[in-house]
Design brief:
By secondary structure, the protein is mainly α. Helices cover 81% and strands 0% of the residues. It contains 14 helices and no strands. The protein has helices at 3-9, 11-32, 34-43, 54-57, 60-73, 77-108, 110-125, 132-139, 143-167, 171-179, 184-218, 227-236, 240-268, 275-279. Helix 5 (60-73) packs across helix 13 (240-268), helix 7 (110-125) packs across helix 9 and helix 12 runs antiparallel to helix 13. Residues 276-280 have low confidence and may be disordered.
């Protein structure tokens, strides 16, 4: 295998890894003052602006060392991850259980669409974080508050995508189903659900990103454990390495869940009407 073939097969990984490595080198250089020392003979005292104090930016090496300590030495981060994961599981799970059926029903029913569209439009245009003070008053500042915040942030993209999925189904498929006297349930399971799957998974990918936001925002109110409150407390104490560990934990969790959904979407792509003809 020559180098050109090897590169073409791994181009995505090579370019992505190269960009990440370049950013890490620049970041480490800012924390260690490499760029200030390198440019000081050229630009003089102006290069000192590139010498950033570690308390403000930390460094990749310091963050990696702190992550090793928090994950494998003391294990202190696992209690935060456990509670945040439970909050996401409950909040996102409730959003899936309610958002998908309601969205599909609104897409199939004219009356359901008329009833839900104003609420979907209003909630989508409103930052759900604005409801935080009311949520705290209604359910308190405990676990339930964070679950409600995550639910409100995640149910909207799921609901909108489920509604749009049904609306974009080819009307000719429904005519064919009716011509064969297919029941509504048969039409739903054989046409609506397979055709809606890509939209539903796209909504879930958006919901995952919002769930991560909900964890951080929701835990600012009265939480004593969780990745969000860990980041907040570390920031107030200028522990930037801990802040980056918490941020990267959320980033990696989001990337992992998104990649799992992408793999699932590729697996269920064959369910879509017409996929067999396209493949052939």
């Amino acid at each position: 295998m020559n180098r050109a073939t090897l590169y073409s097969r791994n181009e995505r990984f090579i370019l992505g890894a190269g960009m990440v490595l370049a950013i890490l080198v620049v970041w480490q250089g800012l924390a260690m003052g490499w760029w200030a020392d390198l440019l000081s003979p050229i630009v003089g005292a102006g290069a000192e602006k590139l010498r950033v104090r570690p308390i403000f930016i930390s460094s990749p090496v310091a963050v990696a060392t702190k992550a090793w300590q928090m994950y494998l030495v003391t294990g202190e981060i696992w209690k935060h991850i456990g509670l945040s994961a439970l909050e996401i599981l409950v909040g996102l799970g409730c959003a899936i259980v309610t958002g998908i059926p309601l969205g599909l029903w609104a897409g199939r029913s004219r009356y359901g669409s008329y009833a839900l569209e104003p609420f979907m439009a209003a909630l989508n245009a409103t930052p759900q974080v604005a409801f935080l003070p009311l949520i705290v008053l209604w359910v308190g500042a405990g676990f339930g508050c964070r679950v409600v915040v995550i639910y409100l942030l995640t149910v909207i993209p799921i609901l909108i995508n489920a509604h749009a999925a049904v609306r974009t189904i080819d009307p000719r498929l429904e005519k064919v189903a009716k011509s064969f006297s297919a029941s509504e349930w048969r039409f739903f399971t054989s046409i609506v659900l397979p055709a809606s799957t890509p939209f539903l998974l796209a909504g879930l990918r958006l919901a995952i990103g919002r769930a991560m936001i909900g964890v951080v925002v929701g835990e600012l109110y009265g939480a004593s454990t969780g990745v969000g409150i860990m980041i907040n407390k570390a920031g107030s104490l200028f522990q930037t390495d801990v802040v980056f560990v918490g941020v990267f934990t959320i980033v990696f969790a989001g990337l992992l869940l998104t990649e799992l959904l992408r793999r699932l979407e590729r697996r269920v792509e064959i369910w879509r009407p017409g996929s067999h003809e396209q493949a052939s």
